[in-house]
Amino acid sequence: MARPVGLLRAMPPGGPPVASWSRTASAGLVLGRSGVRQPVDAALAAREGVAIVRRSSGGGPVLWDADLLALDVVLPRGHRLAAADVVLAYRWLGEAIASALRALGVPGVEVVSVARARAVRGRPGPAAGACFGGISPFEVLARGRKVVGLSQARRAPGALLQAGIPMRLDPVGLARLLGRGPAFARGLAATAAGVADFVPDADPDDVVRAVEGEVAHAHRVRFAQDEPTAAEAAAIAAAEDELRPAAGGDAQPAGATG
Fold first, then answer.
1. 35-78, pLDDT tens digit by residue?
2. SS3 of residue 202 by DSSP
3. In sequence order, what are the residues at sequence separation of 6 or more whose Cβ sits closer than 8 angstroms to the Cβ of residue 1?
4. 226 pLDDT band (50/70/90 cuts)?
């Protein structure tokens, strides 16, 4: 989580866009802007070794485990892909990922329209408090279930667009960490899914290659391979300090994105 935040802060004026992938070796409960207002079973999280962290992007909580692929795209201020309209800014990324998933054989792929997202928001389901329990414009569905969540953060140097693509979901695990019951878990399982639910032999590397191909071909965004510069490394280290796990029994982690 700290890497894209640091890259955004260190982005020079007119610098080249940069994208990168992240996976985690140990699970974390990531709380977005609205997620910090939800109760969290911090004692259970501590027993299970699940870190609780906060980001300034995103809305509801996400259980980030080894099955969640995180894509971060850092854009300099004024870049053509960082539309001034924060909703329309997602469109190109959602459409690119949708094309990649179709190419992998995921059935019934569709990009959420603004009108549909607004309509669904007016009738929230039992898991609407979770990031994958609701839909927002230009997120991606497969047979009506959300398979790609989008979030963003804006800072003076530019914009950070983020996509979460689960290979598999753990609705029961998230429900337990939030102190929610079976209805929440069932609701989340009904509204969201992982790529492997539709293409069982799909490999995370297949998803990465397909998405990179779409983004690089259609939008000429390079994917980071190099080590960060000194300025980037310093900014990443500062972001790490802000994202340290919370102490105590509530949902207010220490530290000052989705």
1. 456 788 989 999 999 999 887 666 789 999 999 999 999 999 99
2. coil
3. 22, 30, 53, 55, 239, 243, 257
4. low
Is residue 9 within 8 A of residue 243, CB to CB? The reply is no
Tally of helices (H runs) and strands (E runs) in the chain: 9, 10
* Cα–Cα distance for residue pair 185/172, rounded to 1 Å: 5
Distance between start and end Cα atoms, the chain? 10
Check residues 32 and 82 and name the one with the higher pLDDT.
82
Q: What's the CATH class of domain 2-237? A: alpha beta
Asked if residue 11 lies in contact with residue 157, where contact means CB atoms within 8 angstroms, the answer is yes
Query: Regarding beta strands 109-111 and 222-223, do their DSSP bridges make them parallel or antiparallel, or are they unpaired?
Result: unpaired
Q: Which of 98, 95, 94 is nearest to 106 (CA)?
A: 98
Average pLDDT, the chain: 87
Query: Where are the strands (E) in 121-196, listed by range?
Result: 140-142, 145-155, 158-166
Q: Which residues pair with 141 in a beta bridge?
A: 110, 146
pTM: 0.88
**DSSP strand pairing (222-223 vs 18-22):** parallel
The rounded percent of the chain whose pLDDT value lies above 90 is 61
User: Binning pLDDT at 50, 70 and 90, where does residue 250 land?
Assistant: very low
Question: 73: Cβ–Cβ under 8 A, 6 or more apart, which residues?
Answer: 17, 18, 19, 81, 93, 160, 161, 162, 163, 215, 221
